[in-house]
Protein 1
Amino acid sequence: MQRVTAEIFAPSKHAFGLALGVQPVIVCRSNRLANAMTTVSSSVSSLITSLGEIPPETVIFGHSETMQSLRERMDKVASANVPVLIQGESGTGKDIIARMIHARSPWRTGPFVKVNCPAIPGTLLESELFGYEKGAFTGAYGSKPGRVELAHRGSLFLDEISELDLALQSKLLQLLQDGQFCRIGAQEDKKVEVRVVCATNRRLEEEIETGTFRQDLFYRINVVNLHLPPLRERRGDIEDLVAYFLEYYNRKYNCRARALSLDLMSALQKYHWPGNIRELENLIKRYVILGNEEVISSDLVGREQEFFNPDINLDGPISLKKLTRQATRELERKVILKVLQAHHWNRKQTARALSISYRALLYKIRDSGLPANRSKRRPEVIAGQVAAAD
Ligand SMILES: Nc1ncnc2c1ncn2[C@@H]1O[C@H](COP(=O)(O)OP(=O)(O)OP(=O)(O)O)[C@@H](O)[C@H]1O
Ligand SMILES: [Mg+2]
């Protein structure tokens, strides 16, 4: 069974703040599309999830100057129908920003179609995105619109855009240039009006240099760039975020976890947050559920030891040996992850590429906390987070 990889919704008046449990609606203004969508309703329905709650703006943007200017940029760009590229480390809130852009765009009453590119196998991605005609390939018993088409007069959110292969990148380029695309097996191009929002936690400039991302596509999607800072660069917002998550999860789980002690707050302020706001949220969620600060404190200490923290504390004793060991470990983890990704998570090929034995690779994957296979390679897992019960 394929993982849920796309969400389609049209925001209602509940879109912000009260959206929990809202049933998503597909809004479609063209009859032709509406008919087409009816024929695929069963497959699409499996892709629909509820919108989920978006935190209040004061929490999302906090106090830092970077976030304030980001908010201004976002407000301006939302009303203009131009492509937007959202960049930032995993867990910094790219998803939230993409939804906010849609909710403020001229097509806010249209569909918001999210495509989680890495979650769809490369071979299926083209048909998922652009659709197909009957008989286009073995098993194509009927025609099916792709998500590009379903996003007509709405927003198409391409999450982790760097995962598109070069052939799909050129199809996307055509879509961005003239709004045209072609279903697999179709004789003619179709036209859609769609606002494209892309997100990535990679540096696309580097992907261009290595030849895995088209430069012309980069210019097309990067008309406006919104860069979300990592949490360690907006430490001033940690306290408010903690208060928000505490209140939220106390309410959600009907718990009464108390405000954090000053010691723990100060530990949170010092921690380097590789998993960013998602990591902080999960930590507070665990605290609310377990109601015990000690679990969180010892967890933090463990994480500090596990990951290399480049913010070297000059106030205490410095162990060069320990720092070097941590840095080497972190570098090894990054290299293995990159090579695994390059080989589509094929561990035999990865071991060959790294000139180590298959067994050694398996050991290193386990040792570095990387997920064992592609389906689990969510960045928050890679960042070593322990997801709390939900
Ligand atoms: N500014 C914020 N205020 C409050 N909560 C936030 C904020 N940013 C992110 N979160 C929360 O952190 C979690 C991760 O956010 P989100 O999914 O938007 O991150 P992302 O950048 O898309 O991560 P990834 O690259 O892993 O997909 C979500 O549960 C979200 O609600
Ligand atoms: Mg995301």
Protein 2
Amino acid sequence: MIDEMTTVLEPAPLPDFVETKYVKDITSRALSFIKAGFPVHFRGPSGTGKTTLAMHLASKVERPVVMIHGDEEFTTSDLVGGEYGYRIRKVVDRFISRVLKTEEDMVKRWVDNRLTVACKYGFTLIYDEFTRSRPEANNILLSILQEKMMDLPVGRGGEQPYLRVDPDFTAIFTSNPEEYAGVHRSQDALRDRMITMDLDHFDYDTELAVTQAKSKLSKQDSQIIVNIVRSLRESGKCEFAPTVRGCIMIAKSLKVQKLTPSRANNVFMQMCQDILASETSRVGSKTNQDRVKEIVRELVAKELGIGKTIDVGKKSGKDTTGVDTIESKKVEEKKERKESESLAGVSS
Ligand SMILES: Nc1ncnc2c1ncn2[C@@H]1O[C@H](COP(=O)(O)OP(=O)(O)OP(=O)(O)O)[C@@H](O)[C@H]1O
Ligand SMILES: [Mg+2]
């Protein structure tokens, strides 16, 4: 029993979790499906908050949580359990206080795995990226979700071949339909037993709140980063759309160096280019990277220009961020005009 319990998580609020209107709305819709007795499946591209939402939803169910991460190598016994070596049993007899008697024996034992534990005790199961596991391994879930019965493999010893699933048992699934490696199309029969909620990238307020909460950067600076990432995403010119993780990475990298977009000069530009070019490309081909870097350069320039967060006019006229503001252009033009006028004066 103790061994089984080591895999159980206590539902607790996640650190830096933000609950915007968008998050509240999805959670309450999902919770109403769960209350009606249906498993919920969050499906969406990378970085759309599936795992975090699944954990948040599980915390709302207020039951202990067990978590499984889909894996190509999984077999049914990885989910259900199996005979794992031997258990050493030690009995310490202190019936007569000064006489210590110990007794040891070894028994081959069956160990329930997480799925069995969740069904037996009515816990909440989070099956993250379940489509990474092979369909044969997942078949055990069909009768659990429909008939609320779990088929136990022979060898569990002594007990019934079926386990009645506790009525408090709840399942939350996540999957990414776009993933390229090691994914099995979710079996139709399994998908038919759950309610799928398709998630897209966060709305503006949520993306901003997450970036700010995770990095502790100011709202204004977080806004600049979120604007750049969202514009790049909406440009549709990337192999993979940049995600909120890109925002978090840029924001945290700035914070750790105690910089802000406006005070970082071209460090900010390079940071955005490095992070976003790598996040949006699978193999990182040079042409791809160069194209994304060029778009990012334009977006950063536009953001910093619009936000008037830099005061390039006061500098030597050459802007170190690579941003040509109207102010700096005027200074440059004036200087050029003066030079040509004086040159003209010399020659005449
Ligand atoms: N409501 C939230 N509050 C705070 N941070 C959040 C919230 N939702 C998501 N995040 C953060 O956003 C990032 C992406 O979220 P998450 O890992 O849940 O996405 P995912 O859809 O599971 O991605 P993947 O498909 O790559 O596993 C994580 O760093 C996570 O901590
Ligand atoms: Mg995830």
Protein 3
Amino acid sequence: MSKPVSPAFTDPAGTWNRRFEQAGFLFGTEPNGWLHEHAGVWTAGQRVLCVADGEGRNSVWLASRGLQVDAFDIAELGVAKARRLAAEQGVTVNFTVSDCDTYAWPEAACDGVAAIFVQFADPAMRARLFAHMKRCLKPGGTLLLQGYTPKQLDYKTGGPGQLSHLYTAAMLREAFADLDIVELREYEAELAEGSGHRGHSALIGLVARRR
Ligand SMILES: C[S@@+](CC[C@H](N)C(=O)[O-])C[C@H]1O[C@@H](n2cnc3c(N)ncnc32)[C@H](O)[C@@H]1O
């Protein structure tokens, strides 16, 4: 018998809205660690797009660093919380409620893309998503991406729980072979990013620049 497909994949907007309607911030209000470590690749005034930004912890933090930030997510309740977080922190982010397949991706317009835990995408959607992410970068623009590796299935401290959604270094090297890979690191770490990403985790991080 095949494994039942999680509602997170059959009804992503409904599933994520139900998660985000809970009080508090599922992934916290501090930026993701990989993003925090590498955001120095961008300088104030540059334009960065946050893909599937959830409740806004990453976009709001980038805006607070003086970047011009666009962000989208499929879950309107997540985006509503992100708008409130931005208002509380006195920063401006251009938020949109959108599925990644229908988002009005700009062409060669962004100095950066932040794709942090976007492993809702199955292999077919992932190919479309990665193609959009690459095309929206200007030449010289930098992608920062963070996800989980298959080892995360042993830890169960976050992530989609579906092998086909997880990343290996070989997969990312191939998917981004047309970009210059600046850093690609598989590592394990203790995460404390809200209640959603908490505990010992098998991670992968990528920094890649469009030629
Ligand atoms: C694990 S959360 C990560 C959120 C955010 N990037 C962060 O690091 O806090 C995954 C996000 O993907 C969004 N999502 C799921 N399917 C999507 C889709 N098809 N298009 C756009 N966003 C989607 C969810 O609403 C959720 O906010």
